[in-house]
Write a structure and sequence with these properties.
The complex is a heterodimer. By secondary structure, chain A is mainly α. Chain A contains four helices and no strands. Chain A has a domain of 56 residues: Arc Repressor Mutant, subunit A, CATH 1.10.10. Chain A is elongated and about 70 Å long. Chain B is mainly alpha-helical. Chain B folds into two domains: 96 residues, Orthogonal Bundle (Rna Polymerase Sigma Factor, Chain: A); 91 residues, Winged helix-like DNA-binding domain superfamily/Winged helix DNA-binding domain (Arc Repressor Mutant, subunit A), CATH 1.10.10.10. In chain B, 64% of the residues lie in helices and 0% in strands. In chain B, helix 3 packs antiparallel against helix 4 and helix 7 crosses helix 8. The chains are: A mainly alpha, B mainly alpha.
């Protein structure tokens, strides 16, 4: 039986995202780390999962394209000007936060 | 750095709080920045989750107005970020329902990539940063990621967007989506495995 098919590997796979996120407690983390050191298949899986997470997070370095940004700024300016003409202060609405 | 120069990315919950508190005390720059942030969130959500560029303006307008009205009354600034994402999600989904018969498609993720200096970093532009080989590899990976995101069911795609792309905590994602933290983690794990598989495919 290959390591990838072993029960331990399957159990580790379920915890791999939490491992990558640093969401495991000390004992769990140490157990996963020890397994990864001895299992090239799972270690490769962990590395590629980390890579996937990094790639997704690269997409967070985003801003609006120039034309969209210009429209957004114009909306803000128009809103603030219209509010200043009508008395200006932020009005309460039914919106709620919890 | 001016409040108006804030960049998108992870770990900005304190930025939102600071902006909101400043806006509530009459800081015009902070209010402007907050309103821009709200529209940026709506734009990214429209493109990456709903996949409809045409809906973005409506969602941005909705986020702008609700943020402006809400900013004056919130008593817990820490709750603002989750309120904003929930508001944007609802606005985008309402817009999406109007177009229910049209197939969803993902608009270019590459378009949104920007360099650290804020300039738009299109993949066909050599900017002296990554090598041409890196650019080709990154471009291919981003296209693959975009396609993979499209293939995820919406309830998984929104989790990836909020957690991975927008950097919300698991608890915040759970609040925005209205599911348990455990469910967020399960969906995120499955989505990551799917995305990994797509990215690794030859």
């Amino acid at each position: 039986m290959t390591p990838a098919r072993s029960d331990r590997c399957r159990a580790l796979l379920e915890r791999l995202s939490r491992y990558v996120d640093g969401d495991l407690n000390g004992a769990e983390r140490r157990a996963v780390t020890a397994h990864l050191r001895g299992c090239p298949t799972c270690n490769s899986m962990a590395e590629s999962l980390k890579h996937t997470v990094c790639l997704c997070r690269d997409a967070s370095t985003t801003r609006l394209p120039p034309a969209v940004r210009a429209r957004a700024k114009a909306r803000v300016a128009a809103l603030l000007v219209s509010q200043s003409k009508t008395g200006g202060r932020v009005r309460a609405t039914k919106a709620t936060a919890h | 750095m001016s409040l108006l120069d804030g960049a998108a990315g992870h770990g900005r919950e304190t930025d939102y709080e600071a902006l909101l508190v400043a806006a509530q005390t009459g800081n015009q720059q902070a209010m402007e920045r907050l309103l821009m942030r709200a529209q940026e969130v709506a734009y990214r959500f429209s493109l990456l989750v709903c996949g409809h560029a045409d809906d973005a303006d409506d969602a941005m307008q909705e986020a702008l107005l609700k943020t402006y009205r809400f900013a004056g009354q919130i008593k817990e600034p820490a709750a603002f970020r989750t309120w904003l994402y929930r508001t944007v999600k609802n606005a985008c989904l309402i817009g999406r329902r109007r177009r229910v018969h049209e197939p969803a498609h993902m608009v270019s993720l590459d378009e949104l990539m920007v360099a650290p200096d804020g300039s738009v970093q299109r993949m066909d532009v050599k900017d002296g940063g990554p090598s041409p080989d890196d650019i080709v590899v990154n471009s291919r990976l981003r296209r693959t990621l975009r396609r993979a995101l499209q293939q995820l069911p919406p309830e998984f795609r929104v989790i990836v967007f909020l957690r991975e792309i927008e950097g919300l905590s698991t608890r915040e994602v759970a609040t925005v989506v209205g599911i348990s933290e455990a469910n967020v983690k399960t969906r995120l794990h499955r989505a990551r495995l799917f995305l990994r598989q797509q990215l690794e495919a030859p």
